[in-house]
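Hypothesis: this fold can be encoded by more than one sequence.
Test: take the C-alpha cells below, design a sequence, compare later.
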C-alpha cells in the first residue's frame, strides 16, 4: 500500500502537472470574480468564502479522470481488480484517493489563504475557509472516486465524471461555506456545520471506496 501511495503521488505530479494545473485554474477563477461583480471590496469580502469553495470544487473536478486512467492504460488496473478481494480493493481505492488528494488537491488548500487576500477577506474568514477546505476537499475526492470508477472505461469520461460528481458534492459545499461564514458572522454558527462537514468526510471515507471498488469490479466483469 505504501508503494502504491508513493507511486500515485509521483504520477499525480508528473501526469500533466495536475497540482500546478489545479492551482492555476483556482487562481484564474478567483482573479476573474472582481471583473464580474465590480471593485466593491465589502461585497468581495462577503462572497469570498463561497467563491473560494466553488473555485476549489471546480479545480478538484479537473483531475478526477486521472485517478484510475493511468492504471487502465498500463494494465495495472486489471491486476488490482483481479488480484484483490472486495475489501482489499476498497482499501486500495482509499489509498489511491489519499495520494490523489495530497498530490492534486492539497496544493489548492495551501494556496487558499493567499487567494483569500485577493478577495479582501478577514483573517478569521481566511483561516476558517482554509480549515474547511482541508477537512471538506477529501470528501470531494472520495465522491469523485466513484464517478471516476464508473467512467474509467468510457471515452471522454472526464466530462461524464463532472456531471456525475457535481450534484453529489452540493452537501459538502453547503456545509463548508456555512462553516466559513460562521467564523466571521456572529449569528451564524461555525462548529455545527464544521462538525457535519467532518462527519461527511468520514462517512464518505467508508462509502466512497466501497462504491468505487464495486464499480471497478463490475466494469472489469
Amino acid at each position: 500500500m505504501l508503494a502504491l501511495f508513493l507511486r500515485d503521488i509521483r504520477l499525480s505530479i508528473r501526469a500533466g502537472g495536475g497540482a500546478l494545473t489545479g492551482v492555476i485554474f483556482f487562481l484564474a477563477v478567483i482573479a476573474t470574480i472582481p471583473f464580474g461583480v465590480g471593485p466593491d471590496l465589502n461585497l468581495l469580502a462577503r462572497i469570498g468564502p463561497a467563491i473560494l469553495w466553488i473555485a476549489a470544487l471546480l479545480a478538484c473536478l479537473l483531475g478526477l479522470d486521472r485517478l484510475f486512467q493511468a492504471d487502465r492504460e498500463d494494465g495495472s488496473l486489471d491486476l488490482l481488480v483481479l488480484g484483490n478481494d472486495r475489501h482489499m480493493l476498497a482499501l486500495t481505492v482509499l489509498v489511491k484517493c489519499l495520494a490523489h488528494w495530497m498530490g492534486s488537491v492539497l496544493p489548492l488548500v495551501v494556496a487558499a489563504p493567499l487567494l483569500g487576500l485577493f478577495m479582501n477577506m478577514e483573517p478569521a474568514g481566511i483561516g476558517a475557509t482554509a480549515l474547511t477546505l482541508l477537512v471538506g476537499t477529501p470528501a470531494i475526492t472520495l465522491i469523485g472516486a466513484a464517478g471516476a470508477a464508473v467512467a474509467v472505461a468510457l471515452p471522454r469520461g472526464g466530462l461524464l465524471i463532472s456531471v456525475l460528481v457535481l450534484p453529489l458534492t452540493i452537501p459538502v459545499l453547503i456545509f463548508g461555506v456555512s462553516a466559513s461564514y460562521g467564523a466571521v458572522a456572529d449569528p451564524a454558527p461555525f462548529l455545527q456545520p464544521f462538525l457535519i462537514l467532518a462527519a461527511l468526510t468520514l462517512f464518505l471515507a467508508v462509502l466512497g471506496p466501497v462504491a468505487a471498488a464495486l464499480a471497478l469490479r463490475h466494469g472489469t466483469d
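The chain is about 85% helix and 0% strand. The chain has a mean pLDDT of 83.
Hypothesis status: open.
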